Amino acid sequence: MTRHYFFTSVTRCSDLWTEAFDTRMLDREHWATGDFVVGRVVGERNRLYECETKTGRMAELVRGDLLVGALGKRSATLEGVGNWRAVGDDLELDSLTSAGLFGRATSISPMLPDLMRLEYLGHVIRQDTKLNMMDFVRPVEPRTLDIPVVLLIGTSMSSGKTTAGGVVVRALKYLDVDVVAAKLTGAARYRDILKFRDAGARRVLDFVDAGLPSTVCSEERYRTAFELMLSKIAAWDAQVLVAEAGASPLEPYNGATVVDYLRNLARFTVLCASDPYAVLGVQNAYGSGLRADLVSGPAANTVAAIRLVGQLSGHRALNLLDRRSYPELVDMLTEALVLQEAQQATG
Q1: Which CATH superfamily includes the segment(s) 149-346?
Q2: Which of 103, 131, 101, 92 is nearest to 9 (CA)?
Q3: CATH 3.40.50.300 in the chain, residues?
Q4: How far apart are CA 77 and CA 282, in angstroms?
Q5: pLDDT tens-digit profile of 192-243?
Q6: How confident is the model at residue 344 (pLDDT cuts 50, 70, 90)?
Q7: Over 60: is that where the pLDDT of 120 sits?
Q8: What's the gap between Cα 100 and its chain centre?
Q9: What is the pLDDT of residues 138-160, one digit of tens each?
């Protein structure tokens, strides 16, 4: 009987659901970040017993279901920390994200129920060789990115970056701009970049396309993936890139590398913050090395919050979920990206 697998979204750049594979248990000394593995769902079911599939849809799971995901690391300030290297002799895994990032949790927020637990059944094998995300990454011709960038950064995870990015993409499409979008750091969740595509971005990508289950890795490994992502984006020949750096630049997701590289290309920077004081914290941490053109996220949910952001940091803040903010955002983007002149020149 053919086994039924749930292919999580970290597998979306592979062919695992169209080409046959075997499963074999390997000693941990042969495990590596990005390895595809199979786990069987165990434990008491709760609201976290679900997975994001290769299409971006969410699927509910029950004990006994088989998942294909990838070994990786997570270091989320608000939810949890985990690492495949922390897996014990019981060979049980935790689903560190619904996208199929597998490891063992080492620190979990008390606001969350237990993470979905998996029994390790083995690595994905073909022709006697384990398969890794990197095996499905196609090299591209190196190209230099030289288009204007709208950069989205945050004070932490869940600070509103993806939501703000979707609004920005819609505003640029309203201005008839050929826009593409990318999530350059974070922990794999396909639905984040799908929101950009749904908002109107012609093309989207993230670090999964470059072989990483998350960007909690060495700077050297991340830079290789980052250069690949930039070369792919440059080949699209778009007018504007909307780029999100997941988590915050100060967390171990290599966000600082993104900010440092894109600083000269960034024509408009949106800082999404959890509260007004977080804006001041990031500003103090980066000093003059970080310039925000707009503050959004929960720090701009109310008039009182917007006023406090201005008092503390001097930055303009907008609630991008409020339609009344839309005309001002469009005006700010038009001025920052010099869109009117560019359209007249090509019209």
Answers
A1: P-loop containing nucleotide triphosphate hydrolases (3.40.50.300)
A2: 101
A3: 149-346
A4: 15
A5: 999 999 999 999 999 999 999 999 999 999 999 999 999 999 999 999 999 9
A6: very low
A7: yes
A8: 13
A9: 999 999 999 999 999 987 767 88
pTM above 0.90, yes or no: yes
The backbone region for 297, taken as left when phi is positive above 0, alpha when psi lies in -120 to 50, beta otherwise, is left
> Tokens 């007004």 map to which residue?
276
**b/e per residue 91-114 (b: at least 16 CB within 10 A):** eebbbbbbbbbbbbbeebeeeeee
Q: Which two tokens stand for residue 63?
A: 């004990």
Q: Are strands 22-24 and 92-95 parallel, antiparallel or unpaired?
A: unpaired
Which token pair is 99? 């996208």
**Widest pairwise Cα distance in the chain:** 66
DSSP code per residue over 1-13:
-PPPEEEBGGGTT
Q: What share of the chain is helix, strand, coil (3-state, %, to 5)?
A: 35, 25, 40
Angle at 132 between CA 130 and CA 138, to 5 degrees: 130
Helices (H), 99-185: 161-174
The mean pLDDT of 3-13, rounded to a whole number, is 95
DSSP 158: T
Q: Of 179, 168, 182, 169, nearest to 231 (Cα)?
A: 182
**What is the reported pLDDT for 50?**
97
Quick check: 297 pLDDT over 80? yes
Beta pairing, strands 80-83 & 73-75: antiparallel
Give the tens place of pLDDT for each residue, 281-296. Answer: 777 766 656 678 999 9
Bridge partners, 101 (sequence order)? 70
Whose structure tokens read 């171990």?
A: 252
How many Cβ atoms sit within 10 Å of the Cβ of residue 146?
7
Tokens standing for residue 25: 């248990």
Number of residues that make up the chain: 347
Average pLDDT (30-47) is: 96
Q: Where are the alpha helices (DSSP H) in the chain?
A: 161-174, 190-199, 219-235, 255-262, 276-286, 303-313, 326-337, 339-346
